[in-house]
Amino acid sequence: MDEFERSDVPYMVTHLDDIREGLQSLSRHFSFEDTMDNQHIPEHEETETQFNYIPERVSNLCDEQFAHVQRLVPPLCTFYSNNSGEVAPRHVTMCLEVGELFLSKKQLKSQLGNYAFANRFQIRVFKSDTTRYQVRCIVEDCNWRLRATKVQNSDYFQIRKFDNQHACSTKARFPHQRQASAQVIGEHIQEKFCYHRLYKPKEIIHDMQREFDISCNYHKGYRARQIVLEEVQGTPVESYSILSSYLYMLEQANHGTVIDLHTDSSNRFMYMFFCLKACIDGFLSSIRPVIAIDGTFLKGPHKGVLFIAVCMDSNDQIFPLN
Q1: Which region among 32-46, 97-111, 222-236 has the lowest average model confidence (pLDDT)?
Q2: Torsions phi, psi for 59 (to 5 deg)
Q3: How many CB atoms lie within 10 A of CB 167?
Q4: Contact indicator for 201, 222 with CB cutoff of 8 Å
Q5: Are residues 99 and 169 in the same domain?
Q6: Which of 60, 58, 79 is nearest to 5 (CA)?
Q7: How many domains does the chain have?
Q8: Phi then psi for 197, rounded to 5 degrees?
Q9: Where is the domain boundary, 166, 201, 234?
Q10: Is residue 202 within 8 Å of 221, Cβ to Cβ?
């Protein structure tokens, strides 16, 4: 438990079969030899079995055999103590190297922001144009700097020079973290949305303070949450654009389902209704012939009203119709 975050445990439990399969295939490439020579082992006495590792057996292993296992195992964590003395897990910081390529200048800037964020210092832009990007440490006399240029006839940017030695104190380079933008915070909290479906801005603020000793306001935490939700779930516009396809697949999977979708002259959504075949059969066979309709106002970015029709079954329980 010390090497992984607690939030990673449910994810690993659900993939135990895949991990077990990968470890079994890995064990076939090792040789274990008992060197105890059948010696008598006293009862209730702890012993340690010795084994010999034969490197020739694993010299030709293919990484692809264990790629799915590597994806399931969470990254290693380091531990640090914050100001309150509480020990908290923190992911191993990323590395930048001379010659490293980035798909675009935007990706380079994003990676630099994450690098400064994880290593607790700030950067300032020294030169920036369409063909080059140079940054330095925010402290004036510090030696840390990085220079990247655009690769000819492409959109790639490559690191040409990188001096990774700081000559300034930690307090001078980290009074506040301006690289901790909503986009950067969103990239660091994206994994937590797999386990926290109601990850609130207050929790984001608390986790940033606990894990990185960074203070952010409620507005920045809210924007970071919205950025991650759009990346994970998509935007409402994208959801509305695939609504007709979803209804078609719903009807194909549930033959007899009633669907009614209306759009305006510009093919924009107006309103819709659907009722599953199972609900229709249940209503016709054993439900009281009394229908109650209720509605609620939608509070998202796209306003509207959601209506639902329900009945009462023989056990006086609610039976939905749509």
Answers
A1: 32-46
A2: -70, -25
A3: 11
A4: yes
A5: yes
A6: 79
A7: 4
A8: -70, -25
A9: 234
A10: yes
User: Closest Cα to residue 22, out of 74, 71, 60?
Assistant: 71
pLDDT given at position 58: 39
Per-residue tokens: 191 = 């994994």
What one-character-per-residue DSSP string does 37-80 give? TT----TT----------GGGTTT--GGGGHHHHHHSPPPEEEE
Using the Cα atoms of residue 60, residue 65, residue 71 and residue 74 in order, give the sign of their dihedral: negative
Q: Which residue has the tokens 């694993």?
A: 58
Single out the residue of 138, 92, 84, 82 nearest to residue 115, CA to CA: 92
Q: Would residue 305 count as lying in a domain?
A: yes
99 and 170 assigned to the same domain: yes
Whether the per-residue pLDDT at 68 is higher than 70: the answer is no
Residues 211 and 271 in one domain: no
Distance of alpha carbon 169 from alpha carbon 138, whole angstroms: 11
182: which 2 tokens? Answer: 């909503």
Q: DSSP 3-state assignment of 173?
A: helix
- In degrees, rounded to 5, the angle at the alpha carbon of residue 278 between the alpha carbons of residues 276 and 283 is 100
C-alpha 211/C-alpha 79 separation (Å) is 10
pLDDT of residue 73: 35
Higher pLDDT, 7 or 20: 20
Structure tokens at 148: 């990247």
- Residue the block writes with tokens 């607690």: 6
Q: Which residues does 93 contact at the CB level (< 8 Å), separation at least 6? A: 115, 118, 119
What is the rounded CA–CA span in Å between residue 264 and residue 254?
Answer: 27
Expressed as residue numbers, the domain containing 204 is 180-234
| Whole-number Å distance between alpha carbons of 199 and 206 | 11
**How far is residue 82's CA from residue 265's CA, in Å, rounded to a whole number?**
59
Amino acid identity at 38:
N
Beta strands 269-275 and 258-263, pairing class:
antiparallel
Q: Residue 209 falls within a domain, yes or no? A: yes
143 is a domain residue: yes
Residue 132 lies in a domain: yes
Helix (H) or strand (E) holding 308: strand 304-312
